[in-house]
UniProtKB/TrEMBL annotation:
Pfam families (UniProt xref): OsmC
Domain of life: Bacteria
Protein name stated in the entry: OsmC family protein
InterPro entries, per the entry: KH_dom-like_a/b, OsmC/Ohr_fam, OsmC/Ohrsf
Length: 146
């Protein structure tokens, strides 16, 4: 995997992934930034959420769960000293669908955290305490169409 970073002035950078996607990163105004993009640490948090949500959707589909939406809300704590690494991250999943079983969601979360999500494994092995919670919401529109 490869990526490139190009300084675009101040403390802003354009990042381009090997797959051709681009994202702008910028620091907060307190550090000379102009708020033109996400902070680099925010992108790490977004990557973790995306990786885990990808796993959850994939695992639940393979388990033949009728999922119509998956959301992941993340809350992170960082060390007070430099480097201000993540110390704790909590992921809360909201899984929407028709007849989705709690046990299947719980299993999917554990498989993601313990086996499949590279970001989660990397961060937890680096000392970040990662916790999870979830809720299953019945999709009224899916129930009506069945």
């Amino acid at each position: 995997m490869q990526a490139s970073i190009q300084w675009v002035g101040g403390v802003a950078f354009d990042a381009k992934s090997e797959s051709g996607h681009q994202v702008t990163m910028d620091g907060s105004p307190a550090y000379g930034g102009e708020n033109r993009g996400a902070r680099p640490m925010e992108l790490i948090l977004l990557g973790l959420g995306g990786c885990a949500a990808f796993d959850i959707v994939t695992i639940l589909k393979k388990a033949r769960q009728e999922v119509t939406d998956v959301r992941c809300e993340l809350k992170a704590e960082r060390a007070d000293e430099i480097p201000a690494v993540f110390t704790k991250i909590h992921l809360h999943f909201t899984v929407v669908g028709h007849g989705v079983k709690d046990k299947q969601v719980e299993k999917a979360i554990h498989l993601s955290a313990d086996k499949y999500c590279s970001a989660s494994r990397m961060l937890s092995q680096g000392g970040v305490e990662i916790t999870h919670s979830f809720e299953v919401v019945e999709d009224a529109t899916a129930a009506q169409s069945v």
